[in-house]
């Protein structure tokens, strides 16, 4: 089940956070070491010796999945329910080692979320329960229509809960208020910068722009191999049906993590050469990576592409007639195939949109009129077919016996006009948002650095 606020419900997990682990141990009795030679000091600058005996837990990566953030507890149940929001978007089975990494990532996300809520309360910007409930109800209505209670049932069915999603909503609202007060007022974009950007857009008219999603994982020479393996596991999960936006918000270390990795439309010249060469070969919906770049690895997903300041045929508004036949439960395969054959031949003989009702009645088909349909909103396969049709022509039949077989007849098309390009205010807003996003990430790092986090 996919939910939307402009994103899937499983995409409702915030970006990553850093935290420190505190371990209390008793110190062993110490002895005075002998003086070391200069060569030995160079080989062992900290004087640790050849063997290190760890006290207590010998594996720092194995922790109970709970934490106390400035006195507020994050429980294992909190983590389980938030993990369920992410895993609900993945069609493939998540392996145990991958699940453990996901749980640790979600814990860091919940720490961030807690810090944001706490900071908003300290600065007298609290989010009320009434505001959270109103936002939750709007989300439920968007996804479940007249039965918002169905979202409560869905959340419990996948192993999450309404309380977990409401806490997510509260964190997002708190963070938005903090950014509006402490970041946005201090970001300025000059008129000269806006005019320079407008000139660059005009000079690039007709060149292609790529709307990319990114997942960036930083790496050092010491951990490069481990990061590469993690990136490969993420790629595998995405190819098995995982949500790119959810994984970007969980794992990406770029500032775009908060928007699901969406870079927006960019030109190849704006991208690192390693990514630009890959992006140029992709079609919308395709994924590639891990791509080694300075400082780490990137996974890229091509969401869309277009030509700068040029009308895109996919922005055409179509008027369609959907002509379909359905099949009774238990209908034999031979009978269904014969009906599909007669339907396929019959729709080819329809003499324009005005003849559709008569022909449909003879074929035992039903008709639904679909006006004002944006071509871009249709599946990509149908987009290319419909944009090549003339008025009154139909697509090839598509569908299944279970869902019905149908065709689409083109009965009207309003082509887009050539784009005039963004205006001054739109470009200024874009530049401001980019700078606000970068400063907001620095602000969040400050909250983390000032926090007292204790793992249990």
TrEMBL record:
<dbReference type="InterPro" id="IPR015391">
    <property type="entry name" value="SurA_N"/>
</dbReference>
<feature type="domain" description="PpiC">
    <location>
        <begin position="207"/>
        <end position="304"/>
    </location>
</feature>
<keyword id="KW-0732">Signal</keyword>
<protein>
    <recommendedName>
        <fullName>Parvulin-like PPIase</fullName>
    </recommendedName>
</protein>
<dbReference type="InterPro" id="IPR050280">
    <property type="entry name" value="OMP_Chaperone_SurA"/>
</dbReference>
<feature type="compositionally biased region" description="Polar residues">
    <location>
        <begin position="1"/>
        <end position="10"/>
    </location>
</feature>
<dbReference type="Pfam" id="PF09312">
    <property type="entry name" value="SurA_N"/>
</dbReference>
<feature type="region of interest" description="Disordered">
    <location>
        <begin position="1"/>
        <end position="42"/>
    </location>
</feature>
<dbReference type="InterPro" id="IPR000297">
    <property type="entry name" value="PPIase_PpiC"/>
</dbReference>
<dbReference type="InterPro" id="IPR046357">
    <property type="entry name" value="PPIase_dom_sf"/>
</dbReference>
<keyword id="KW-0697">Rotamase</keyword>
<keyword id="KW-0143">Chaperone</keyword>
<dbReference type="InterPro" id="IPR027304">
    <property type="entry name" value="Trigger_fact/SurA_dom_sf"/>
</dbReference>
<dbReference type="GO" id="GO:0003755">
    <property type="term" value="F:peptidyl-prolyl cis-trans isomerase activity"/>
</dbReference>
<dbReference type="Pfam" id="PF00639">
    <property type="entry name" value="Rotamase"/>
</dbReference>
<keyword id="KW-0413">Isomerase</keyword>
<keyword id="KW-0574">Periplasm</keyword>
<feature type="compositionally biased region" description="Low complexity">
    <location>
        <begin position="23"/>
        <end position="42"/>
    </location>
</feature>
